[in-house]
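User: We ran a pulldown and think these components assemble together. Before we commit to crystallization trials, I'd like a predicted model of the whole complex to look at. Sequences follow.
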Amino acid sequence: MKTYQVHVRVMPRVGLLDPAGQAVEHALASLGFGGASNVHLGKAIALDLEGRDEADARDRARAMCERLLANPVTEDFTIEVTA
Amino acid sequence: MVTVGVVSFPGSNCEAETFRAAERAGAGTVSIWHRDTDLKGADVVILPGGFSYGDYLRTGAIARFSPVMTAVTRHAEAGGAVLGICNGFQILCEAGLLPGALVRNGGLHYLSRPVDVRIERNDTVFTREYHEGQVIRIPVGHGDGRYVAPPEVLDMLQADGLVVLRYHSGVMLDAPANPNEATDDIAAICNPAGNVMGMMPHPERLADPNLDSDVGLGVFHSMVSSLAPAQ
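Assistant: Here's a predicted model for the assembly, 314 residues in total across the polymer chains.
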């Protein structure tokens, strides 16, 4: 077994109302940061994960996302695996 | 006697009022711990309000994997009555016992206030003591109460009449309609069999005759009158 660094990014499903993202977008605009749009707030989850190889670690991370880390009704996720 | 079981998760905080409301409605009560693997003879299981596991990750996301949820799922699948109130509703959605999800309120604020809800169905175990179309004023207290679901699920809820309570305006104008921007004004839904219901409002918080209203007691009277053995 090798240990991999896994970074999971969970974001609100595109098209779903994201009031937190909108609030940050308005705050940026009111601070004078013009030109910022499509602001969305998600979660970043970092873990060390054992796997036979990178693909195995990625498969296990995906299973974790599907079971617990993301809600399939409201969120999408991406996974980064590095050795 | 009908026995109401109330589950305590780490972070649940509405158990005491829920027990008292059940007792006032004439039920026996039993306390169920999240690590328990049986329901101690409960006829109705209530997942109460609160902040199980600090709402970490998502509301209800961790509580749904508690050992007791295996027994709750078995009870529900066998037709037993299960009621989720607020955090309990969130747990039932995460567990897949009800469809959809509850996400951050549209206005981002935590809401703690009365709202008006309309009884859309009074033929459930939980609402039979109300009239269909009745509007009741009842408290909510939540940060994540906006009900969302994929379009096909919303169509199914509508077609099969699974929406039990809707936020309502028009009768009592000083209460906000749909305070959390829930889809289709949904405040409570049930499963197709009608034995599992989740609701965002807190009926146990208006279940004491010493308060101005004890309209929430109807939920508990409904469970008792529905499930009491025929005399």
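DSSP finds two helices and three strands in chain A. That may be worth checking against your pulldown data before setting up trials.

User: Thanks, that helps.
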